[in-house]
UniProtKB/TrEMBL annotation, chain A:
This is DNA-directed RNA polymerase subunit. It is found in: Nucleus. It comes from Linum tenue. It comes from the Eukaryota. Belongs to the eukaryotic RPB7/RPC8 RNA polymerase subunit family. GO terms for biological process: positive regulation of nuclear-transcribed mRNA poly(A) tail shortening; positive regulation of translational initiation; transcription initiation at RNA polymerase II promoter.
From TrEMBL, chain B:
GO terms for cellular component: nucleus; RNA polymerase complex. Signal peptide: none annotated. It comes from the Eukaryota. This is RNA polymerase Rpb4/RPC9 core domain-containing protein. It comes from Linum tenue.
């Protein structure tokens, strides 16, 4: 799920950036530093949408760098266990398939794919029901439920399932 | 990490910070990100190089999964859903997935039926109806 939240960060700024454009420099450095990063607590920082307030700077002993506490609003993407969302299938193999929902990767193991769906190898590997009516392959859109998350230093990785009511393929690229 | 173990969106256990935070539906994120993308393009020519991968992937994702494209419709969806005393998170799950039946809605958002919520099936049905009307007249 995407959220709009306020985060705080202490920004260190070199004295050469001081002057009229101090605030602009601070903001562009902030964007460069945090946009695209990921933390386990807040998820992926997608975009900064505004600066709430810039606190008083504090000169660091010995270096001349100044630390400013900056409060900023941003859009983050944070997946939760138990959350249901839509995702695009990116890779299919006999172990299961990978899907992407925005910046996050989700793996659905073949144990968590309905039992009536069989793996079919070939140049377009896919999972298909015995009557061929439902097919999961690269670029399919699926609705899945996140059942576990693993947090790395720079990434969040999810495990999902489509073995439940109202989950599964919502759009098959071959039929549209 | 005990707090993380207990996390469960189905019971609305997403941590205090996120529970109070403003949730965004995919269509709202799409409006925000496209606006930001246009700004970036105006500032420099190689806007695509400046975007982080996270930004790019999110933009693609929300464009693909936005149920409502028109900004007015997006506003209406939020307005209608906010009449039902939903938590931010529940509101956004419903807005994103647009369930068609009451049963589907409850499966998508089990917390709708939890506690002593005043929300009965008829109310949910009306809510889903209103949502599909917006989609129809968009």
């Amino acid at each position: 799920m995407f959220f709009h939240i306020v985060l705080e960060r202490n920004m260190q700024l070199h004295p050469r950036y001081f002057g009229r454009n101090l605030r602009d420099n601070l903001v562009s450095k902030l964007m460069k530093d945090v946009e695209g990063t990921c933390s386990g607590k807040h998820g992926f920082v997608v975009a900064i949408t505004g600066i709430e307030n810039v606190g008083k700077g504090l000169i660091r002993d010995g270096t001349g760098f100044v630390t400013f506490p900056v409060k900023y609003q941003c859009v983050v993407f944070r997946p939760f266990k138990g959350e249901i969302l839509e995702a695009v299938v990116t890779m299919v193999n006999k172990m299961g398939f990978f899907a992407e929902a925005g910046p996050v990767q989700i793996f659905v193991s073949n144990h968590l794919i309905p039992d009536d769906m069989e793996f079919q190898s070939g140049d377009m590997p896919n999972y298909t029901t015995s009557d061929g009516s439902v097919k999961i392959q690269k670029d399919s859109e699926v609705r899945l439920k996140i059942i576990g998350t693993r947090v790395d230093a720079t990434e969040i990785f999810c495990i999902g399932t489509i073995k439940d009511d109202f989950l599964g393929v919502i759009n098959d690229p071959t039929t549209t | 990490m005990s707090g993380e173990e207990e996390e469960n969106a189905a019971e609305l256990k997403i941590g205090d910070e996120f529970l109070k935070a403003k949730c965004l539906m995919n269509c709202e994120v799409s409006l925000i990100l496209e606006h930001k993308y246009e700004q970036l393009q105006q500032m420099s020519e190689d806007a695509t190089n400046q975007m982080s991968q996270v930004f790019e992937k999110s933009l693609q994702y929300v464009k693909r999964f936005s149920r409502y494209k028109n900004p007015d419709a997006v506003r209406q969806v939020r307005e209608i859903l906010s009449r039902y005393q939903l938590a931010e998170f529940e509101l956004c799950v419903l807005g994103n997935l647009c369930p068609e039946t009451v049963e589907e809605a409850i499966t998508m958002v089990p917390s709708l039926k939890s506690k002593d919520r005043s929300l009965n099936d008829d109310a949910i049905d009306k809510m889903l109806n209103d949502l599909s009307l917006i989609k129809k007249f968009e």
